[in-house]
Amino acid sequence: MIRDRGRIKWTSMMLPEHVKLLRDWAKEDTYDQRREIDEQKLESMNDIISEAMEFGKSVTITHYRHNNYELVIGNIHFWDDINQKLHIVDRFEEIHRIHISAIADVRFTM
């Protein structure tokens, strides 16, 4: 049975720049691709956001940030029309500013 060191054997013959590029390339495989949202979903999300702002309901917002999808659970504080961002206050009283184009899904929190 041959027992070699696998990839470690070849890294000593590679330039550090190449090793870094290979590691970055492997890291990019874990990134999520941004999904397109259809008109019907946009209309539904708009209705949920409007109702949550009017009645102070808690929402769960999925948004795209740093090549991955993240969840924010909280109340919508207000809509910044100039910057096109939602200001959301979570249960730890932290303010999240989410650009409207980064939002992938909005649901009411039970």
Explain how this protein is built.
The chain is an alpha+beta fold and 110 residues long. 32% of the residues lie in helices and 35% in strands. It contains 3 helices and 5 strands; from the N terminus they run αααβββββ. The protein has helices at 7-11, 16-28, 39-55; strands at 58-65, 68-80, 85-90, 95-99, 103-108. Strands 4-3-2-1-5 form a 5-stranded antiparallel sheet, covered by helices on one side. The mean pLDDT is 88. This is YolD-like family protein.
β-sheet strand percentage:
25-35%
Give the low-pLDDT segments. none
Whole-number average pLDDT?
88
Order of strands across the main sheet:
4-3-2-1-5
Q: Find the structural class using helix and strand composition.
A: alpha+beta
Radius of gyration: 21 Å
Helix content: 25-40%
Number of helical segments with 4 or more residues? 3
Task: Say how many strands there are.
Answer: 5
The dominant shape is elongated
Oligomer class: single chain
The ordered string of helix (H) and strand (E) elements is: HHHEEEEE
What's the N-to-C terminus distance?
58 Å
Major beta sheet summary? 5 strands, antiparallel
